[in-house]
Design brief:
By secondary structure, the chain is of the alpha+beta class. About 25% of the residues lie in helices and about 20% in strands. Bound molecules: zinc ion (ZN). Zinc ion (ZN) binds next to loops.
């Protein structure tokens, strides 16, 4: 059977067949519709190709992507972990005390026995600095959950922010193509080297038009929907709860929409299914934290875990009670260590987020470890146990935006 015109494809004739209709670069060229004008779910038309995040890692290492194996990556990460430990201990007052009596790291076991870094430790960032104050480009303040914790303050250098910008450029090219119109529905305002600025600078060179709604309408789903209908974005970037709040006002979707990037809070399966069924578009999940300069991991269209920026961060999962490192695939609290970061390195930082690491090959061809779905926030129980709870961290209707 030959398909000469995707726009006239009779889906009823090919039900049960496996269909791939792609362009020269392996991507869908059209947001196709069936004869009754309903959009076809885009992902069935996309042939997963290697995540551009993996390609960027191979490029930075100067090796062919075919040689980007888990053991290759681990050798590089291990070198970075040791360098980060020594740099932090020698240059930061906090880490000099934190790692007192630990002269060096010689094995993975040594690493896994290092003390953990908590949110409270980030309230005095000056003590964590591994460089002079003049190297700090942005100092970001974050309120901790609850009412008793001191605000976290994160010092980021120009290099840290530029590396995040590069990660966004590689990662967002998973979904965005030249000519796309990206509507950023995240909270916050445009400021130099802030999150919105970094996203904008990362995609504009790709030929993407960035659309930003007036902050006044972001908390009003009806007005936000009207803005989306009027501005015709092809891709939305926003928190799942915010996007789900738009469903009653756009039950059959938006005419030009082909993709969604979900970020700032866990993407629950029920929400993903509701959006996919109503809006018939690709939905990719992103996980990031302000503490590590915003971006960390992004799904590819194979939907088999989020690809990590593995030359900037090392991810572990631990038992939140015993602090023991868990085998890959086991659910626990996510720890992050920043790599190649000199200004304010984070070593075994407790995120409070619950998830797991995947080591099975991804459908896109990647063999590197990936982050599975974020399951929720850590909640300690009076009986000494723990569980995870669903607690949106981002901005959603009816609540003031987080800063
Ligand atoms: Zn993949």
């Amino acid at each position: 059977m030959a398909f000469q015109d995707i726009l006239s494809l009779d889906i009823a004739r090919v039900r049960g067949c496996c269909i791939h209709v792609v362009g020269e670069n392996g991507r869908c060229l059209h947001n196709s519709t069936s004869l009754d004008t309903l959009s076809l779910y885009r992902s069935i038309l996309v042939m997963p190709q290697l995540s551009p995040i993996d390609q960027a890692i191979a490029d930075e290492l100067g090796i062919p992507v075919s040689r980007l194996l888990p053991e290759t990556l681990w050798r590089i990460q291990w070198q970075y972990l040791r360098e980060t430990f020594h740099h932090a201990k020698q240059t930061s007052a906090f880490y000099a005390k934190h790692f007192q009596g630990i002269p060096q790291i010689s094995s993975r076991k040594d690493w896994e026995n290092l003390p953990l870094l908590t949110a409270n430790d980030l309230s005095q960032p000056e003590a964590l600095l591994g460089t002079s104050q003049s190297a700090v480009e942005r100092m970001v303040t974050l309120q901790t959950s609850g009412t008793t914790g001191s605000p976290k303050r994160i010092a980021l250098s120009t290099t840290d922010l530029q590396r995040t910008q590069a990660f966004f450029a590689h990662g967002l090219s998973t979904l965005l193509r030249k000519g796309d119109r990206l509507a950023i529905l995240l909270p916050g305002s445009m400021r130099p080297m802030g999150l919105l600025d970094l996203i904008t600078k990362s995609v504009e060179p790709l030929g993407i038009n960035v659309l930003l709604p007036n902050p006044a309408i972001r908390t009003n789903p009806q007005q936000l929907c009207a803005w989306i209908f009027a501005t015709k974005p092809t891709v939305l970037l926003g928190a799942p709860s915010l996007l789900q709040g738009l469903l009653p006002y756009a039950p059959t979707g938006f005419p030009h929409l082909s993709g969604i990037l979900a970020s700032t809070e866990p993407l629950e399966e029920a929400c993903k299914v509701a959006l996919a069924q109503a809006w018939h578009c690709e939905i990719l999940n992103h996980y990031g934290l302000t503490e590590i300069a915003y971006g960390l991991a992004l799904e590819c269209p194979a939907h088999q875990g989020m690809h990590l920026r593995s030359l900037d961060c090392y991810v572990e999962c631990i038992d939140p009670i015993t602090h023991q490192c868990l085998p890959k695939g086991c659910v626990g609290e996510i720890l992050i260590t920043t790599l190649q970061r000199k200004t304010m390195p984070l070593i075994r930082y407790r995120t409070g987020d619950i998830g797991f690491l995947r080591t099975d090959p991804c459908g896109c061809g990647s063999l590197l470890p990936r982050l599975g779905a974020i399951l929720g926030r850590l909640s300690l129980l009076p009986n000494g146990g723990w569980q995870w709870i669903h607690k949106p961290k981002g901005h959603h209707f009816g609540m003031p935006p987080s800063s």
